[in-house]
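Record minuted for completeness.

…
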Amino acid sequence: MGSMISNYIVIVSISGVLSALLALFAYYKKNDFAGTRAFILSSLTSAIYTFGFALELSGSTMPEISFWIKVEYLGMPFIAPSSLLMIMYFVGLERLIRKGLVTALYAIPFISVLLVWTNDYHHLFYQSMYFREGAPAPLIDVVMGPWYIVQGSLTFGCMLAGMCLILWQWNRMKRVYRRQLFTIFIGQFLPALGAFLYLMDVTPYGMDPVPVIMSITSTLYIWAILSRGMLTAAPIARENLFESMRDGVLVTDLSDTLVDYNRAAADMLQDLDASAIGKPLAQLFLPAGQDAVDYVMNSDPLISEERELGWNMNGETRYYQIRSSPVQKYGGDQVGRMIMLIDVTERTLLQEKLLQLATVDSLTGIYNRMHFMELSRGLLNEAAFSLAPVSVILLDIDFFKSINDRYGHHYGDIALQHIVTVCSSHLREGDIFGRYGGEEFVLCLPETSLKQAALLSESIRKDIERSSISAISGPIHVTASFGVVEARGKNLSLEDLLSEADHALYTSKRNGRNAVHVSSGSSITPFTPV
């Protein structure tokens, strides 16, 4: 046997060993890639094929060589269909992999195995086999039968389909995933090229170059698995999911520099495009407003957290829920973090609207009675411990019914809004102002004595008296009556204060209206500014 054939056998044997190791490595490696089983089957059948071919080359008689050819066909017909299934999983087309497709892909290989092992009885696969003349060793040539063409068509069809799927996804993938795509493409292209050259009878002594080529592709696969994580998951399927998410996703390194983002994030952040890769996250969040920048500057990439931020988007305020979680590589080392942006604007605005309906009077825009009572009780509890004075003012529009009767309810509503506007101009931050009911309003004033509250009431009364409401028939003059009381001990409840203020208010009503009366607990007196 010539030295060239011997060297060829060694190379083919090495190829078989690499394919077997690749199948074992993929089997024992923990991963979440759904196409792993197809990849293992492809590698295992490649090992059977190449070992059978090596033994074929070492044979010296027709029966011996014919037997090892039969062994080769226990593996070779299944390689291309298995590779195609693996590629379909890789590019995210697993939804197309159904029982019918798998059956169709493997039916022909199983028939081929049966026909090869029984070929002496029907010659459907090989019409004849003979030794090649002038070869340095016993090498077999064959005359193809009809099923040989069927099997060859399936093999080339699967390889071509796999390469087309890869090219179809090429421009859709980020650069980081293209190395894996290229490796798989080479793993399909080189064997297909070798098989084509073999069929065209342009290889040395007509020997099949595919087993030797598989030593190259197996080495590439091992490199891709070890250095590129090719079997850790289906990157393209993951990329499709990543890009189809409605929520924005940003991936940063440990220094909060952007390394990846999806399409939804580009819609949420101004000027986010490919040129943003490598920029600090704080710079990208700057147009979103101070809240967004503060989040980046003060959050810890090592800690998972969730918060809601107001977000400036083209002059409009949006609300995003921000979820941040660390990103770890295999082994547990942290390499960055993932930030998810969830648009909760509609939910937040609805919550604000519901809160407003529950706490704010819809006509006047100030607190309703229930919320006023809740806030004022809290204020009184705080004042009881600090011994700070708290006063309550109750006021009522004079002759309000006559305004409704004479001018209509529309002007009655305007009168209520007018009183709120006048009162609000006198209030401080921290004062609590609410609509007590109908045409009655109430104020709870922290750190305000009885005299200070009475002076404030008098100022408001004068402003109401001096102002008017414009109507078609002429100006409408409005006045109001006031009752003022101060909390004088820890045990005095809000209800007690309001009852005292109410008595003072109706004293103002009974004494001519448009007046301020104060209650000191034991007596109610008119307030006259000095």
In short: The chain has three domains: 1-235, 245-349, 360-526. The first helix runs from residue 3 to 28.
